[in-house]
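Appendix B. One record, verbatim.
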Amino acid sequence: MASHRRPKQPNRARVTVLTATAAAAVALTSQAANAAPSEKPSKDEVKSKVDKLYEEAEKATEKFNGAKEKQQKLEKQVDRLQDKVARGQDELNDLRGGIGSLASAQYRSGGIDPSLQLFLSSDPDSYLDKASTLDQLSSKQAEALKKIQAKQRTLAQQRKEAADKLKDLATTREELGKKKREVQGKLGEAQRLLNSLSAKERAALKAKEDRASRDSERKAMDAPKTDAPKGGVKGSSRTMAAYAAAQSKLGSPYVYGATGPSSFDCSGLTSWAYAQADVSIPRTSQAQANAGTRIYSQSDLKVGDLVIFYGDLHHVGFYAGNGQVLHAPRTGTVVRYESINNMPFQFGVRI
């Protein structure tokens, strides 16, 4: 006979687990469906992230500029030291050659015991003259040997100094490469975020920036005369010459590490502009922050003063009057006017 057993009922615990798993799957699917529309960040969110990346890139840019400046100084120092070493070696070779000549002269005069030479000499007077010459040769030899020893010590010191500088140079070049890669990484990430926006959204962001820049330019042009440095202020004519040079570069593109004349980064613009006024200032914004008298109140700023931004002093521009600055802002922009309140103001610097 066929078996008529009742089907085995599922275990109650197993049913509970299956039910819970199914519910969780439904919930996750529902959450994913609800989250899908918000996966793409808004235009304002993208702009906020991009601005942050540009700020980080500029921090790295100023460190890159500092490493580049250090590298250039070290290269010059190494060249000078290597030139000194080469000239010192030539001098040492000449000194050694001189010792050889003295030794040859002494050999030709007779290198045997002086008392024996006197005994054998048929002309004592002539021998005594030769002995006097030999004494002079010995004295010159001793002096030459002292010079050789001193030159050898100097040369060894110069060679060590050159080797140390070369080591510093290698380290600086490595740091330069790291900072360059960091800058490029931040800029690349920012560009990828911008590319996630539609062409219409990107155009809207640019139009907004352009309107703000035109508004800042109008305000700068309308700056009261009290914002301009007085004629009696020391260096005011050169300050205004530097500011005028910067104004002549309005519209020039920002390029990290650039110092003109066709593209600039922030400190590249200010250092280039002052150079046109025959004033040499440091290359980086952090160093420029110490290049003159600090002015902590915005109300005391005059046109042409440098303006330093951010707690780590990684951005610099020119005060343009009426609460505006003229500067090279960041990658993707050009030299332009902006409100001084767009960035955290630290202090001004009057060169």
